[in-house]
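Hey, I'm writing a tutorial for new members on how sequence and structure tokens pair up, and I'd like a real worked example in the thread rather than a made-up one. If someone can provide the structure for the chain below, I'll link this post from the tutorial.
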Amino acid sequence: MAEFINLRAEKHYKVRRGADNRDFKSLYRFEEENLHYIATHFMGENNERRGGALSSDLKIKIFLRYMTNPGFQTGVAEELGIHQSTVSKTITFVINKILEKAPLWIKFPSTLNQVNEAQERWQETFQFPCAIGVIDCTHVQILKPIHHGDEYINRKGLATLNVQATCNSKEIFTSVDASWPGSVHDARIWRNSETRLIMQQFPGAILLGDDGYGLEPWLMTPFRNPNNESERTYNRLFKKEKVIIERCFGQLKRRFPILKYMCRVKLERVPSVIVCCIVLHNIAKYLGDADFPDDDDEENLNNGEEYELEEDRLLQRARERRLEIADVIFTQNLR
């Protein structure tokens, strides 16, 4: 009779590997105590081990190793002693958990009190009058899509997404738009962005943007050909303070190399990966988790084509306001 009894097959699990003697932060991009905070914040405490269950800490480790590898699930699976399919499912699970709380960590000033507070914080560190932050775009390389692939080719011949973001004086990203192909100009993304609509509601506040953008009353750009010392002083201060967004992009890509080299996931999932990395960048700032050292090969992939504003009236207002700000900077000797 024994030969007719169905015996449950014995399960065999790979040996789970923890961090060895190598530096924990170089593997997982955060200090160990901060990684535990992130795991608990997004997924709660989970120490279940039955059936080979993964703890919250291990799920975050899997996700962060994938962001660092960059982007090869088989290598992460082999390193941590789990199956590739488990890596894939865990990455999706963690992305969804982070996205659920993304609005808590990426917040653009949207009320008068918030705008005033942002201006005050800017003045605590910088000098540019009325500013609440800086705007710029960066490119994230992707696998060339099969359909409409040429739309994603940027001016350097790479398939990318053109990601618009703003940051504040604390090097924290306050908005992000990761939905545009690499061939789309920065100015077009801005003209269609929710951030621009918000800025129009607060005429007393401005963002700083490079000369790839069109000048607007709420978006200051540098003088292309300064004619006097007032305009040259304006440009010097502008250049000095606008660099903060480039520094933020550099910090983001050094912490998460998947954004620096190539994001090897399906096109529809790339924006989610980018947003998750930006959320974790902001958390790193909140926790005081040190940034990674500068590289020498950071590239600025922004194109420099010129776009004219559709409304001459706004351009004239913006020019007048820029001249007023330049006079203030020169008069108060802000350098």
